[in-house]
Amino acid sequence: MLSTLIYRSRLSPACSVKELNQIVTKAQARNAALEITGILLFDGDYFLQVLEGAESAVNQVYGSIRRDPRHCNLVELMRDYAPLRRFGNLGMELFDTRRYAQGSILEAVLQKGTSRYNLAYDDRALKFIRSFVEGHWRAHLLPCPDSANWRFATRENPFSLPMDLIPGQPCQFALQPIVEPLRGQISSLEALIRGTDGGSPADYFASVAPEKVYEADLLSKNYAFALAKRIGIGNHKIAVNLLPMSLVMVPNAVGILLDQIARNGLIPEQVVVEVTEDEVISRFDEFVIAIRQLRSAGIALAIDDFGSGFAGLSLLSKFQPEKLKLDRTLVSDIHINGPKQAIVQAIINCCAALEITIVAEGVEKVEEWCWLQAAGIQRFQGYLFARPLLNGVPPVAWPDNAV
Ligand SMILES: Cc1cc2nc3c(=O)[nH]c(=O)nc-3n(C[C@H](O)[C@H](O)[C@H](O)COP(=O)(O)O)c2cc1C
User: By C-alpha distance, which of 110, 98, 8 is closest to 62?
Assistant: First the structure.
């Protein structure tokens, strides 16, 4: 099957424009051997390359291209399949857009195209080419964050030291900070449920009879709030995960939560309840009734794992939480993935208009954080900053700008 891959990248400061001709000559030979066709556009600063060929060959070459230090800020824009090659006659031709009179470059590129595509202006690949030569794509470009400038330094936190397993509890909790890295602040702690011996959440729920799941879910929060008290949470917020149906199925659920909160010296305003988007939409009407009570009590609501489920942005037309946590599937490798960037930018715009705070979860790479921070997100959770710690708060790795 014929596959197409389009990416954009930027010439590395260390690479001179002169070196480009060398790159192209070698690339043409290699592409010919692998039966890869395509073009490389260059505007003096950025590249846009179209690669087409057998999927395995395209992936092989793209693997080498991604590792090449002569360009940077590489973002994959499109992967698709096509009935025939757009640039079947070219192993890989370089078009320096500066050498063409305005308006003539697109025509020159299309002249090189396999005839059927000369008129196919609706073709997505050609739209990327047109946007590049006309410069419209820059409207979506973020100021390039340079991840190499950051060093991370771990600082201890003001909370009490972690404890071993707490005896006499059906479950334990691990705490993971949600941080504002550029302000050096922990904005909240998420309490993640663990089994009696510190094992996975699945271990805990496997130990609960199916008909008792909602009750157990609700009652377990008492141990999370007790841990918040033990570590000396002060004014920080604590976030707990809750099955929305626990609020519906357990009589007086919100009353029980409020009692747990008060018993542990906390106030409702410092508690965030996180529910996943799939759980919300599966029984939406009942959920709405339950959250009304939560909100009237002063407890904040966050939609967890946003982007991983079925609801997506349409959920926000029905209901707007205080916080929205971007699922790790959207966050992972966002710095090199054009579709994820476009989706997350749409979510950021939407949340800005609705005053919903976004938290990016599952952040593991400096590059992911840099891109998301440049896009406007300020709160982050993930191994890059801190892993969950059983019965305690882990030290956070804070970024310092080294340059
Ligand atoms: C902007 C740009 C485009 C490139 N395009 C290709 C290409 O189409 N085909 C190719 O074989 N190498 C291309 N290269 C060179 C590869 O990145 C790499 O140097 C070459 O494939 C040798 O890889 P290897 O050292 O992993 O074998 C390109 C490099 C740059 C900077």
Answer: 8
- Distance from C-alpha of 115 to C-alpha of 117, rounded to nearest angstrom: 5
- The pLDDT tens digits of the residues spanning 209-266 come to 999 999 999 999 999 999 999 999 999 999 999 998 898 889 999 999 999 999 999 9
Residue-range domains of the chain with CATH: 2-140 (3.30.70.100), 147-401 (3.20.20.450)
C-alpha to C-alpha distance for 59 and 62, rounded to whole angstroms: 5
Name which residue sits closest to atom 29 of ligand 1, judged by CA. 65
145 CA to centre of own chain: 16
Identify the sign of the CA torsion 96, 101, 102, 108: negative
Among 89, 106, 173, 71, smallest CA distance to 389 is for: 173
Average the pLDDT over 21-38 and give the result. Answer: 94
Tell me which residue of 238, 240, 233 sits closest to 219, measured CA to CA.
240
User: By the 8 A CB rule, do 244 and 285 touch?
Assistant: no
- Torsion sign over Cα 378, 271, 364, 303: negative
Say how many CA atoms lie within 13 Å of 351 toward its Cβ: 25
- With a 6 Å cutoff on the Cβ, whether 92 touches ligand 1 is yes
> Cα–Cα distance between 283 and 210 in angstroms, integer?
19
Kindly list the distances between the CA atom of residue 156 and the CA atoms of 34, 173, 185, 227, 390, in Å, as whole numbers in the listed order: 53, 20, 12, 18, 16
Mutate to test the pocket of ligand 1, among 52, 61, 95 (most ligand atoms within 8 A of CB): 61
Regarding the beta carbon of 35 and ligand 1, being less than 6 Å apart is answered: no
Each residue's pLDDT tens digit, 104-139 = 988 888 888 886 665 566 889 989 999 999 998 888
Contacts by 259-266, CB closer than 8 A, 24 or more apart: 260/221, 260/222, 260/225, 261/225, 263/222, 263/225, 264/222, 264/225, 264/226, 264/228, 264/229, 265/229, 266/225, 266/228, 266/229, 266/233, 266/238
CA of 65 to the centre of ligand 1 (A): 5
Q: What are the Cα distances from residue 71, in Å, to 139, 140, 338, 397? A: 21, 20, 17, 29
3-state class of 5 per DSSP? strand
Residue 398: how many CB atoms within 10 A of its CB? 18
The full 3-state SS of 238-288, as one line of letters, equals: EEEECCHHHHHHCCCHHHHHHHHHHHCCCCHHHEEEEEEHHHHHHCHHHHH
